[in-house]
Write a structure and sequence with these properties.
With 553 residues, the chain is an alpha/beta fold. It is built from 18 helices and 25 strands.
Length: 553
């Protein structure tokens, strides 16, 4: 059996200009980065007469068994092309940290991949490095301002802007900085987050253009003065230089699927601490070029799809036409209580027990007024009876389920799914976010907790409630909320699989992302700087005798 990287290398890729031509992108809008990838210059793109239909690919709650959301997104895009629909794919960029840790990359799998796989997973066009530099420039300017007199009266105990690095490194989660005497600054505790958790990343992915990017950067709250006044990046005069560092990164990246279809891969905000979607600029660019745009959101529908609908679609005024919910027999069996080592054994009862997780996600997507279809991403060990059980579960709740083999067969294996998606997307829908802008912040949090997670209620300490009240009084009450909790459960307990109800959602901390335009509610134990596993993937990655990368996948 060929590995993903072997399959990717065996494919014959087309020059990036040929991909651009196929997508209707003029040559002067293409800024090549080598033979097979390019940046797009938006001012040279044709003005669209109509916008395409936006299809969201989401999934059931993630498990170690695997769901294949990115793989399904690629397979669906290729399948839509095969049935005659002009389609563009819009995905997030992978982070280096997971590539060298456990999760791996984010370019799909099998015969449903975007390419060049090694480039996309390793540095790509340098977007993440630009975001890291812009973020850390702001951190340096905060410390520099304090060092040279602190004119803004920053309370060094209330500096909330940490540094970032695009690598898993638990040793940097909490640090003591500026040691060594007065020449090195004011000693304080701080730490690092991973780059995908940076508010700069979220801003780049929600900005409409370079002007909006700079304005949003200026609104970042980095600290508070001694009288609790918020200090922003604009107060520090850092917004202009940060925008300069991001001027190339804001341009969408054009690549291709293994079947030679166009794909935009751009941005990659953390799906817990941020909204977990590709950039608004890339999505809008794709909608202006294609009849159908396939995109995805991070983690399961309770986290990724909810944030896509309530944050990205709200801010960018996007109207998705349909949703695809990816499920696997293996993941449903794990939700039904089967250990990972036993997933290859047929267990129809476990599929039915775990099916409650799928049902919950179907119900949640419908709360936003969208039609949905279940894509069963087939594994070789799935039995006919198990697949029938999943189909029956979906059908009992008014949702069609389609067995897909795109991992093994490419776009051909998702043609049936594509036909259902077209039928759903071409029918009228009534999309709407879950809550109104003018709802108080904690009521927004409670709405997500009760309607999406099926909790009894959300809870918060008086200090958290007081902070939310201060932000409302400061003019931030209209912002949507970004729920940061475990992706493995509808509750804040990662071990509570299936579809738990009646629990509470404790909000232990809230953070203001004023530039990105949302308030983060941190529930349970969420890490913004992951660590490497006992045996990281990095141990097996090297340059082979022929100069090719080995061990990446």
């Amino acid at each position: 059996m060929l590995s993903d990287i072997d399959i990717s290398r065996a494919a014959t890729l087309q020059p990036i200009q040929a991909i651009a031509d196929r997508a209707g992108i003029p040559a002067n809008a293409v800024e090549p980065y080598g033979w097979f990838k390019a940046k797009l210059i938006r001012k040279h793109l044709p003005v669209p007469r109509d916008l395409g239909r936006l299809i969201l690919v989401t999934a059931i709650s993630p498990t170690p068994a695997g769901e294949g959301k990115s793989t399904t997104s690629v397979g669906l895009a290729d399948a839509l092309h095969r049935i005659g629909k002009k389609t563009m794919l819009a995905l997030r960029e992978p982070s280096l940290g997971p590539c060298f840790g456990t999760k791996g990359g984010a370019t799909g799998g099998g015969y449903a991949q975007v390419a060049p796989m090694e480039d996309i997973n390793l540095h790509f066009t340098g977007d993440f490095h630009a975001i890291t530099s812009a973020h850390n420039l702001l951190a340096a300017m905060i410390d520099n301002h304090v060092h040279w007199g602190n004119e803004l009266d920053i309370d060094v105990r209330r500096i909330v802007w940490r540094r970032v690095l695009d690598m898993n490194d638990r040793a940097l989660r909490d640090i003591a900085q500026s040691l060594g005497g007065p020449a090195n600054g004011y000693p304080r505790e701080s730490g690092f987050d991973i780059t995908v958790a940076s508010e700069v990343m979220a801003i780049l992915c929600l900005a409409e253009d370079l002007e909006d990017l700079e304005a949003r950067l200026g609104r970042i709250v980095v600290a508070y003065s001694r009288d609790r006044k918020p200090i922003t990046a604009k107060d520090l005069k850092a917004d202009g230089a940060m925008a300069v560092l991001l001027a190339e990164a804001i341009k969408p990246n054009l690549v291709q699927t293994l079947e030679g279809n166009p794909a935009l891969v751009h941005g990659g905000p953390f799906a817990n601490i941020a909204h977990g979607c590709n950039s608004v600029i890339a999505t809008r660019t794709a909608l202006g070029l294609a009849d159908y745009v396939v995109t995805e959101a991070g983690f399961g529908a309770d986290l990724g799809a909810e944030k896509f609908f309530d944050i990205k679609c709200r801010q960018a005024d996007l109207k998705p036409a349909a949703a695809v919910i990816v499920a696997t027999v293996r993941a449903l069996k794990m939700n039904g209580g089967v250990a990972k080592a036993d997933l290859s054994t047929e267990d129809i009862d476990a599929v039915k027990r775990g099916g409650v997780n799928l049902v919950r996600h179907i119900e949640n997507v419908r709360q936003f007024g969208l039609p949905a279809v279940v894509a069963i991403n087939r594994f070789p060990t799935d039995t006919g009876a198990e697949l029938t059980a999943v189909t029956a579960i979906a059908k009992a709740h008014g949702c069609e389920a389609v067995v897909c083999t795109h991992h093994a067969d490419g776009g051909k294996g998702a043609e049936d799914l594509a036909k259902v998606v077209v039928a759903l997307a071409e029918a009228p829908s009534q999309f709407a976010p879950l809550y109104d802008d003018d709802l108080p912040l904690f009521e927004k949090i409670n709405t997500v907790a009760t309607r999406i997670y099926r909790a009894e209620h959300a809870t918060a300490e008086p200090s958290v409630m007081a902070q939310l009240k201060r932000w409302e009084e400061a003019g931030y009450g209209h912002l949507p909320v970004c729920m940061a909790k475990t992706q493995y459960s509808f509750s804040t307990d990662p071990a509570a699989l299936g579809a738990p109800t009646g629990h509470s959602v404790p909000v232990r901390e809230v953070r203001l992302a004023a530039g990105a335009g949302f308030v983060v509610a941190i529930c349970g134990e969420i890490m913004t700087m992951p660590g490497l596993p006992r045996i990281p993937a990095a141990e097996g990655i090297r340059i082979g005798p022929d100069g090719a990368i080995e061990g990446l996948f």
